[in-house]
Amino acid sequence: MPFHSGPGPRLYYHVDGHPKRPWLVLGNSLGTDMLMWEPQMPAFTQHFRVLRIDTRGHGASDVPPGDATIEELARDVLGLADALGIERFAYCGLSLGAMVGLWLGIHAPRRLDRLVLSNASAHLPAYESWTLRMQTVRRDGMAALTDAVMQRFFSQAYRDRDTPFYHSMRASFEATPAEGYAACCAAVRDADFRDRLPDVRVPTLVISGALDSATPPDPHGHLLHDGIPGAQWAILQTGHIANVEQPETYAGVTLDFLRG
To answer: Rounded to 5 degrees, what are φ and ψ at 236?
Structure first.
């Protein structure tokens, strides 16, 4: 299995697609792993060489002690890109992965060709609720949050379909190490990019889910679209994990933007 061991934690990653195609890096959401991008892989690999990474504390990647920051998660991405010889890449991140993308767009724009911020926020308030969530998983384990998180992840219509992939996402969430999840909850809790949005000088697409209760289009998508110079905006009829609910539509919208 491909692991990268650098100055930070050991990261599990996977590369797909033809070596001569341009790079696309994908960033997963809180409480998921690279499995979440499986529905897009046939479409994405037709045009890109795709790098998927299990965020630190998630999937098969290491769980470092202590709370994480978005900067640390973004530097994990850059460190792995450096190790693989990737000078420039497009980046598509969802939720937590999108916050990593925002950091990259502000602090490392020369590394990015294009940026997709999906089901994203520049700041998620309710500090106490994030701290309570961290305490809950550390005390009771991931399963204590599964039902509540699935309601935030997916619209009622998608949950009612009861697909095998939905159950895979539930299993992936419950398999996330509690300490890794809690550490990345802290990263989301403490992130605030609202004043830095004008500094994102990379062509950017914002994707929102009309049924997303976690990062609804108003105010979250609206703030990103208005704050990032020249940003485009697409609203899909999905919940929070938009790429899973509408795989083909999501791939089409993303590829139309990434391919310019």
So the answer is: -105, 155
CA distances from 88 to 49, 204, 220 (A): 12, 15, 28
203 CB contacts (<8 Å, ≥6 apart)?
113, 114, 115, 230, 257
User: pLDDT tens for residues 177-218?
Assistant: 999 999 999 999 999 999 999 999 999 999 999 999 999 999
Q: Which domains does the chain have, with CATH numbers?
A: 3-258 (3.40.50.1820)
H helices within 25-126, ranges in order? 41-44, 70-83, 96-107
pLDDT tier, 1 (very low <50, low <70, confident <90, very high otherwise)? low
Phi and psi at residue 206, in whole multiples of 5°?
Answer: -100, 125
Task: Examine the pLDDT at 74 and tell me if it is beyond 90.
Answer: yes
Q: What is the pLDDT of residues 245-254, one digit of tens each?
A: 999 999 999 9
Reduced to 3 states (helix: H, G, I; strand: E, B; else coil), residue 53 is: strand
Closest-CA residue to 42 (of 228, 252, 212): 252
Q: What is the CA radius of gyration of the chain?
A: 17
